[in-house]
Specification:
single chain; five-stranded parallel sheet; five-stranded mixed sheet; 19 helices; 22 strands
C-alpha cells in the first residue's frame, strides 16, 4: 500500500500501551505518546477503536495529557468493523487513507473483510511510523487540522443530540461562507485542493504538480477576460474551516468545481453552484454529492469573510446589472454575495441582442400582445427582447452601463410605429435597402427566410435622427421613471483604445448620462481614473471597452461601496 495515511485508528490494550486495562494493569508507553503528538504536527489524525470501558480509558488519557489528540474515539465492547466504518464516514475520509493498528489478528481480518480498502497492521509497525513515507503528512505545527476535526466531532455530537433531523441541525449551525477573488495569494492551498480533493471534486481536472507551473497556468487563467475564478471559505458556530472550496469557470463552462471533505453534508457545493447561476459542468467520475437535488438551501449566509465571526454581514439586496462587458465581468465579483439579475448582450438567430436604452423605452410602452406580435413578425426579436427588471422595477438596486449603444442602428417600423434597435451582420445591407436576398444570405449567413428579409426591407426605414438626440430623449425618459430608486451609473472609458470612433461615442454617452444621473441623485462609478493607459486594456489593440481584471474588481468594489452606503 502506498496511499498516504491521514488517520491512524489505534487499538489500546497491548498496542498503544502494554497490558489490559480491564484486568487491572497497564504500562503506558511514552514513545507511542510522542508518536501521536508528532503525527498531529504532520496533520495526521489519531483515533481509537478499543474494547474497553470508556470512563476508565478517559481517565488514563486525560491524566497522561494525550486525550485531546484523539478524535472520534470509539470505546465500547462491540465488534470493531462497523465502528471503524462509522469513524471513517464521520471524519469524511476514504478507507484507503486510514491505518488501523491492532495486536489481534482476528480484529484486523474482520475489519479488512468489511472495509477492503483500509490499511491494517500489527503493533510492529509503530516503531517505524515516523520514517514510513505513508506518514509524511504536511507540516502543521499549530495543530490546525486537529482543531478542525475537533470542531467536526462536536458537530456530530450535537447532530446526534438533535434527534436526527439534519435540516434542523443545519439551520441551527449558523453556516456562513465567503467568496474571495485574490486567488494569486492562496496558490499553495488551491493547488492542494485541486490535486488532492476527490469526494467533492466534480470535474476531476488536475493541475500541474510543479507549483511554479501551476502558478503560471493559474495566472494565465486569471488574466483571461471571461473567467470567473474564486476560492470559498466556510465557517459556522463551531468554528472556521478555512478555504474549503474553489471554482474556475471560463466562458460559462466549469473547469474546476471542488470542495474539501471538511465541508461535506453542509450543502455548500449546492449553494455555491446555485449562486453562480448553475453554470455548465461536466461531472467526471463518482462524486459524494448531487448538485441539483431540489433542496431549498435556506441555512447558509454569505458574508464578507467567513473567518470573521464578529462582523457577519448578510446580503439580501437584489441587483439588476444591465450593460455590456464592463458589467458582465464585474458581476462575477458581486453575485456570490448578492442576488444579481444579469441583463447583458446575447446572440439570437445570429442577431446581437444589445441591452440598449431604446429597448427599455419600447418595453415600457408596449403590451404583452404587442410584444408577441413584434416577435412573431420581426426577425431578430425574441419575445423577451424588451423585458427588463428596469421596466418592472422589482429589484433593490439598478446598475447601468451604456457601452452597448455603439453597436446598434435604429430603424423605424411602419407596421408598428416604433423605432427598433438592431444589431447583426445584415444591418448594413438593410440600411442600403439591398433586396438581393441571396447575396445577403451568403454574405452574412443570417438565419432568416427570404420572406422575412423582404418584410424588413419593405417595413423598416433607417432612422435618420441623430443618435445622440434619440439616446438623450430615451435616457431622460428612463431616468425620470427611475427617479427615487437606487441607481448606479458606470461611466465609459473615453481616452485609451485603438478605435477613436468608439472612444468618441463613449465620450458623447458620458456627456449625456453623467449630468442627468447627478441631477436625479443617482450614484456614479467612474471608470476613467482606473484606465490610465493601454496597459489597463485587456490587449493593447483593444478598441477601448475591455479591461484587465483588476479594473473590473475596482468597479465591483465601488458598486458594493454604494450598496453598503444605502444599506
Amino acid at each position: 500500500m502506498t496511499e498516504a495515511v491521514r488517520l491512524v485508528i489505534w487499538d489500546l490494550d497491548d498496542t498503544f500501551w502494554t497490558g489490559t486495562l480491564s484486568e487491572g494493569g497497564i504500562s503506558y508507553i511514552d514513545a507511542h505518546h510522542d508518536i501521536i503528538v508528532a503525527l498531529a504536527k504532520r496533520g495526521i489524525m489519531s483515533s481509537i477503536c478499543s474494547k474497553n470501558d470508556f470512563r476508565q480509558v478517559e481517565t488514563v488519557l486525560v491524566e497522561r495529557g494525550i486525550r485531546e489528540y484523539f478524535v472520534f474515539p470509539s470505546i465500547n465492547w462491540e465488534a470493531k468493523s462497523h465502528r471503524i466504518a462509522a469513524t471513517i464516514s464521520d471524519m469524511q475520509l476514504r478507507p484507503v487513507n486510514v491505518m488501523f493498528i491492532d495486536d489481534n489478528a482476528m480484529n484486523l481480518n474482520e475489519v479488512k473483510h468489511y472495509i477492503p480498502d483500509i490499511q491494517v497492521a500489527g503493533p510492529e509497525i509503530i516503531g517505524t511510523i515516523l520514517t514510513d513515507p505513508r506518514f509524511v503528512g504536511k507540516p502543521d505545527p499549530d495543530l490546525t487540522r486537529l482543531g478542525r476535526y475537533r470542531i467536526l466531532e462536536r458537530k456530530h455530537e450535537d447532530s446526534r443530540r438533535s434527534g436526527g433531523d439534519n435540516l434542523d441541525f443545519l439551520r441551527s449551525s449558523q453556516i456562513r461562507i465567503s467568496f474571495h477573488h485574490d486567488v494569486e495569494h492562496e496558490m499553495p492551498r488551491i493547488h492542494e485542493l485541486i490535486n488532492r480533493t476527490n469526494q467533492l471534486n466534480f470535474t476531476k481536472n488536475r493541475a500541474p504538480e510543479n507549483p511554479d507551473e501551476f502558478r503560471d497556468a493559474m495566472l494565465g487563467k486569471l488574466a483571461k477576460f471571461d473567467s470567473n475564478i474564486s476560492y470559498v471559505k466556510v465557517a459556522d458556530r463551531y468554528g472556521s474551516y478555512g478555504i474549503c472550496g474553489f471554482f474556475a469557470i471560463e466562458d460559462g463552462q466549469v473547469e474546476h468545481f471542488l470542495f474539501s471533505c471538511r465541508s461535506m453534508n453542509m450543502g455548500i457545493e449546492q449553494f455555491v453552484w446555485q449562486k453562480l447561476g448553475r453554470p455548465r459542468i461536466d461531472i467526471a467520475g463518482e462524486v459524494s454529492s448531487v448538485l441539483d437535488d431540489g433542496t431549498d438551501i435556506d441555512w447558509i449566509a454569505v458574508v464578507d469573510d467567513a473567518d470573521d465571526s464578529d462582523a457577519i454581514t448578510t446580503h439580501d439586496t437584489t441587483i439588476c446589472m444591465r450593460g455590456a462587458c464592463d458589467l458582465s465581468v464585474s458581476s462575477y465579483y458581486l453575485k456570490g454575495k448578492y442576488t444579481v439579475f444579469e441583463e447583458f448582450a446575447y446572440p439570437y438567430r445570429n442577431w446581437g441582442i444589445q441591452p440598449v436604452v431604446r429597448a427599455l423605452e419600447i418595453g415600457s410602452c408596449i403590451s404583452d400582445g404587442e410584444r408577441n406580435a413584434i416577435s412573431d413578425r420581426m426577425p431578430g426579436m425574441p419575445v423577451d427582447r424588451f423585458s427588463s427588471h428596469v421596466v418592472t422595477q422589482d429589484v433593490d438596486v439598478f446598475v447601468l452601463s451604456f457601452s452597448g449603444e455603439i453597436f446598434c442602428d435604429n430603424f423605424y417600423s411602419k407596421s408598428f410605429g416604433l423605432v427598433f434597435p438592431l444589431d447583426g451582420p445584415c444591418v448594413p445591407y438593410l440600411r442600403n435597402r439591398d433586396r438581393d436576398y441571396g447575396r445577403v444570405k451568403q454574405a452574412t449567413n443570417m438565419e432568416l427566410s427570404e420572406a422575412e428579409w423582404n418584410f424588413m426591407v419593405d417595413d423598416l426605414v433607417f432612422h435618420q435622427e441623430s443618435v445622440s438626440t434619440l439616446f438623450e430623449r430615451d435616457i431622460r425618459s428612463l431616468f425620470n421613471r427611475l427617479r427615487g430608486k437606487k441607481v448606479i451609473l458606470c461611466t465609459l472609458n473615453e481616452e485609451f483604445g485603438s478605435q477613436q470612433w468608439v472612444l468618441d461615442k463613449f465620450s458623447r454617452i458620458n456627456a449625456i448620462t453623467m449630468p442627468l444621473a447627478m441631477e436625479h441623485g443617482f450614484r456614479i462609478v467612474d471608470v476613467r481614473p482606473y484606465v490610465r493607459g493601454t496597459d489597463d486594456l485587456i490587449t493593447p489593440d483593444d478598441a477601448g471597452g475591455h479591461f484587465k481584471r483588476n479594473i473590473y474588481m475596482k468597479i465591483s468594489s465601488d458598486i458594493e461601496e454604494h450598496i453598503r452606503h444605502w444599506n
